[in-house]
Amino acid sequence: AQKVTQAQTEISVVEKEDVTLDCVYETRDTTYYLFWYKQPPSGELVFLIRRNSFDEQNEISGRYSWNFQKSTSSFNFTITASQVVDSAVYFCALSGSSNTGKLIFGQGTTLQVKP
Amino acid sequence: DAGVIQSPRHEVTEMGQEVTLRCKPISGHDYLFWYRQTMMRGLELLIYFNNNVPIDDSGMPEDRFSAKMPNASFSTLKIQPSEPRDSAVYFCASSYAGEANYGYTFGSGTRLTVV
């Protein structure tokens, strides 16, 4: 069975702090894909990143960075110098090779960035 | 491109009434997904289509729920009769074959309230 666990339900930081959102996944597929989505207070789901299981390189996009470690089945997301606009619910998701795009979502982490 | 378009944005209905949610996927996309988001269950896949054909409806909660995709540019999710426990945000998403694991685009969602 496939599963995504985001153990942190809520995180609160002060603006300019760095924050890491944890994501641990379970799958028996050898080929799979991991995603992060952002859901701001307005409610839409915004795609942030996709990573396939063969690419363990970390990725940086502006203040965002992702650390993928197959050895620990983790795909963590770090926001550097957080801003109030980063306040949102962040979802980690998994898609296996046999699922043709079907995403399994974690429960989400609510991030509150205070000014 | 206008993205995935869902209507209505908000729906309030009385228990026992029929509710129809609508979705227009991105032109050229041939996968379409219906998700439901609740506080208790998070984001869960209800059904998805490929080339207008339902592929996996194992997430449809019960016979009161039905989904159709009569053509490549339109899908509906119907609940009949509706119950208060159906209150949730329903998201539609679409993606392109072969890139289904690239992360698909979500619509803005329909917030359904059954009273």
What does this structure look like?
Chain A is mostly beta strands. Chain A contains no helices and 12 strands. Chain A has strands at residues 3-5, 10-14, 19-21, 24-26, 32-39, 46-52, 59-61, 64-69, 74-79, 88-96, 104-105, 109-114. In chain A, the strands form 3 sheets. In chain A, strands 2, 5, 6, 10, 11 and 12 form a 6-stranded mixed sheet that branches. Chain A has a 4-stranded antiparallel sheet with strand order 3-9-8-7, with no helix packed on it. In chain A, a hairpin with a 7-residue loop joins β10 and β11 (104-105). Chain A is globular. Chain A starts with a strand and ends with a strand. Chain B is mostly beta strands and 115 residues long. Chain B has no helices and 11 strands. In chain B, the strands form 2 sheets. In chain B, strands 2, 4, 5, 6, 9, 10 and 11 form a 7-stranded mixed sheet that branches. Chain B has a 4-stranded antiparallel sheet with strand order 1-3-8-7, with no helix packed on it. The termini of chain B are far apart. Classes of the chains: A mainly beta (115), B mainly beta (115). At the A-B interface, β5, β6 and β11 of A face β5, β9 and β10 of B.
